[in-house]
């Protein structure tokens, strides 16, 4: 794992957060309690702040970056799947970004929204609360089912617990 100061900014990481080996965290980044950042994820806060809120997980190979004027907020208990690109956007609590998903500058993923794997949310697009979105570009398809929302909560809980397990085993 690499945690690097850039200019006047050093990452702020809660002691309960898990940072996997190979993850790179640079500059103006704040990671809150029980969040987890997995193998080979890159969080680069060189333009604006990246805030990873409590219990959120950023999975293996994901890239989180900002542009000037476009900070990143990843809300409480959000799941960012493997190999996602999260760029200058806001993802509200309990949302899920499926594997290989991309969310671009100015986009907002509302609370409990669910992005299918491989979806592309274009600049300034808003995915409304509790909606399932898919495609390139992403379009809202329907309201997320209670089953899907339950699976999202289970996934976030799994990653919180898995982060604790890895931390306890000093991995």
SSE layout and pairings?
Blueprint: E1 2-4, E2 12-13, E3 18-19, E4 24-31, E5 36-37, E6 42-52, E7 57-58, E8 63-65, E9 72-74, E10 79-80, E11 85-87, E12 90-91, E13 96-97, E14 102-103, E15 108-109, E16 114-115, E17 120-121, E18 126-127, E19 131-134, E20 139-143, H1 146-168
Parallel strand pairs: 1-4, 2-4, 3-5, 4-6, 5-7, 6-8, 6-9, 7-10, 8-11, 9-12, 10-13, 11-14, 12-15, 13-16, 14-17, 15-18, 16-19
Antiparallel strand pairs: 19-20
Protein name: Gamma carbonic anhydrase family protein
Organism: Metabacillus arenae
Descriptive notes:
The chain is mainly beta and about 170 residues long. About 15% of the residues lie in helices and about 35% in strands. Strands 1, 2, 4, 6, 8, 9, 11, 12, 14, 15, 17 and 18 form a twelve-stranded parallel beta sheet that branches. An eight-stranded mixed beta sheet has the order 3-5-7-10-13-16-19-20.
Q: Which geometry do the CA atoms define?
A: globular
Distance between the termini: 10 Å
Number of helices: 1
User: How much of the polypeptide forms β-strand, as a percent range?
Assistant: 35-45%
Helicity level, as a percent range?
10-25%
Main pleated sheet? 12 strands, parallel
User: Average pLDDT across residues?
Assistant: 98
Give the helix/strand class. Answer: mainly beta
| Total count of strands | 20
SSE topology string? EEEEEEEEEEEEEEEEEEEEH
Q: Specify Rg, calculated over alpha carbons.
A: 15 Å
- Can you tell me the residue ranges where pLDDT is under 50 for at least 5 consecutive residues? none
């Amino acid at each position: 794992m690499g945690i690097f100061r850039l200019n006047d900014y050093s990452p702020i990481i809660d002691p309960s957060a898990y940072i996997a080996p190979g993850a790179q965290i640079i500059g103006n980044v704040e990671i809150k309690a029980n969040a987890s950042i997995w193998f080979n994820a890159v969080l680069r806060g060189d333009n604006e702040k990246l805030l990873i809120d409590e219990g959120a997980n950023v999975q293996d190979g994901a890239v989180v970056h900002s542009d000037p004027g476009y900070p990143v907020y990843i809300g409480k208990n959000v799941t960012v799947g493997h190999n996602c690109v999260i760029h200058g956007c806001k993802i509200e609590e309990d949302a899920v970004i499926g594997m290989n998903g991309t969310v671009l500058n100015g986009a907002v993923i509302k609370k409990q929204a669910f992005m299918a794997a491989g979806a592309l949310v274009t600049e300034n697009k808003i995915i409304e609360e509790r909606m399932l979105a898919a495609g390139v570009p992403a379009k809202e398809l329907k309201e997320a089912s209670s089953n899907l929302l339950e699976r999202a909560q289970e996934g976030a809980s799994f990653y919180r617990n898995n982060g604790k397990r890895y931390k306890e085993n000093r991995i």
